[in-house]
TrEMBL record:
UniProt entry tagged with the keyword DNA-binding: no
Species whose genome carries this gene: Bacillus amyloliquefaciens (strain ATCC 23350 / DSM 7 / BCRC 11601 / CCUG 28519 / NBRC 15535 / NRRL B-14393 / F)
The protein's name in its UniProt record: N-acetylmuramoyl-L-alanine amidase (Major autolysin)
Pfam families membership: Amidase_3, CW_binding_2
Record-listed E.C. numbers: 3.5.1.28
Length: 496
């Protein structure tokens, strides 16, 4: 009986210990189909069980889709795609499931053919088409189908990525999205601005998208730009103050998924950001860190958004700026012994840690990435300038007695004492395990870089340069790799 109770208690304890760590990953969900039609259908299932009206656009017509998305929102209609010449099977199935009575096709017959429209009609659905003589005109006509609004979003009609993150903003507020090109306001766009009585405008994109001359002709324009599509999307979310409780994430080069995802983000009162499909983009990491985003919905299956990106989003270190400080450098060798210089070992481990944190989704910054000397104050300044969330100084230990050996991690109590201690406690046992060294424990000491860095900070003494056994490990790439992995894992578990 007693042993039974013991097992029960241990397994309950295991459950209790297991749950918090599982919950501490960021929440990541994925919605996708086998192609753009399937993905749009799958997205519509997230909110619509039925829809009397649906909006259908050509799967290759991004401009039509962008202008249609805010209107679809206003009409409480899902946004679906079709193949140009034939109604796509996924869309046909979905229209039946939704018990749709009216389909609004946005775009002319070059985008959605008359045959496709007839196939929709054959389902007993009435079809209405909104189309103009070009993309500007179609967007203008869509705008006239929307409720009265005094503001519009303006984007270059030939650059699909610019407007995507503005779609939820336009949709939720009932603002139309109108197009220009880089150097001209099309007459259809000018006409829509006039007839709708637009008094102010949000311009999505830099001068490479819409130049200053066009910008200045728009009503009370405000420009939001970025150095690339990822930063532009992040800036739109940030500057338009869009909700970020559960952010949608899509491939910035996959317009169909991104636009349909943006339409759903609007419906869910959320926002959308973009990423490279294989690796979380730097600018995306920045907004994740800055806005402390921790819940995501990925739009599209692999390979549109890879499982690597999904794992990076899940990792709570995602978007965190981690300062890596490899101790010493140049004329300052640090400890010397057993044929190695501490500065070289620190740099080697630091570079490996940099690679691992990058792969984890963080934004690592190194105080030095080569054999350069920086003063301790310069190192502290680099952490402050980077706005680092954590400061990790990497060192090797030394003692006159060559018998002294083992691993220890230091923190200082001047700033962020509790957090620094917790960080040290996460890193220390993992480094001990990686190097199979003696555990000298977590300690406090007023080392300059951890005393004056205001963020949680630790100084890891990986092992003794002066001890033959410790040094033999620090000479080997495999141990340095394991040490870097251990520090990375310690940082990740600190955030869990
Ligand atoms: Zn040192």
């Amino acid at each position: 009986m007693r042993s039974y109770l013991k097992v029960l208690i241990i397994s309950m304890l295991g459950l209790i210990l297991f749950i918090p760590s599982a919950l501490a990953d960021n929440a990541v969900k994925r919605v996708g189909g086998s192609n753009r039609y399937g993905t749009a259908a799958a997205l519509s299932k997230q909110v619509y069980s039925t829809a009397s009206t649906a909006v259908v656009v050509g799967g290759g017509s991004y401009a039509d889709a962008i202008s249609a998305a805010p209107m679809a929102y206003q009409k409480n209609a899902p946004l679906l795609y079709t193949n140009k010449d034939n109604l796509s099977a996924e869309t046909k199935t979905r229209l039946k499931e939704l018990k749709t009575k009216t389909v609004i096709i946005v775009g002319g017959t070059p985008a959605v053919s008359a045959n496709t429209a007839n196939q929709i009609k054959a389902l007993g659905i009435s079809v209405k088409r909104i189309s103009g003589s070009n993309r500007y005109d179609t967007a203008a006509k869509v705008a006239m189908e929307m409720p009265a609004a005094s503001k519009a979003v303006i984007a270059n009609g030939f650059l699909y990525a610019d407007a995507i993150a503005a779609i939820p903003y336009a949709a939720m507020n009932g603002y139309p999205i109108l197009f220009t090109n880089q150097t001209d306001i099309n007459s259809a766009t000018a006409g829509a601005i006039k007839s709708k009585g637009i008094k102010s405008s949000i311009v999505a994109g830099g001068t490479g998208s819409i130049n200053a001359s066009v910008f200045n002709k728009l009503p009370s324009p405000k420009r939001i730009s970025g150095s690339n599509r990822y930063e532009l999307a992040a800036n739109l979310v940030q500057q338009l103050n869009l909700p970020t409780g559960n952010v949608f994430v899509s491939n910035g080069f996959g317009y169909a998924d991104s636009i349909a995802g943006a339409a759903l983000a609007a419906k869910k009162k959320q926002s959308i950001i973009l990423t490279n499909g294989s690796n979380l983009s730097k600018e995306t990491r920045v907004i994740i860190g800055r806005k402390k985003l921790s819940s995501f919905t990925i739009i599209g299956n692999t390979p549109a958004v890879s499982s690597n990106v999904a794992n990076q989003l899940k990792n709570p270190v995602s978007g965190k700026t981690i300062l890596i400080d490899p101790g010493h450098g140049d004329q300052d060798s640090g400890s010397i012994g057993n044929g190695i210089l501490e500065k070289d070992v620190n740099l080697d481990i630091g570079k490996r840690l940099n690679t691992k944190l990058n792969a984890s989704g963080a934004l690592p910054v190194m105080t030095r990435s080569n054999d350069t000397f920086y003063s301790l104050q310069e190192r502290v300044n680099k952490g402050a300038t980077a706005g680092a969330d954590l400061f990790i100084s990497v060192h090797g230990n030394a003692n006159d007695a060559t018998s002294a050996n083992g691993t220890e991690t230091y923190y200082d109590e001047t700033y962020q004492a509790a957090a620094s201690k917790r960080l040290a406690e996460q890193i220390q046992p993992k480094v001990v395990n990686a190097l199979s060294t003696r555990d000298r424990g977590v300690k406090t000491a007023p080392f300059y870089v951890i005393k004056y860095s205001k963020m949680p900070s630790v100084l890891v003494e990986t092992a003794f340069i002066t001890n033959p056994s410790d040094a033999s490990k620090l000479k080997q790439a495999s141990y340095k790799e394991k040490t870097a992995a251990a520090i990375n894992d310690g940082i990740v578990s600190y955030y869990k």
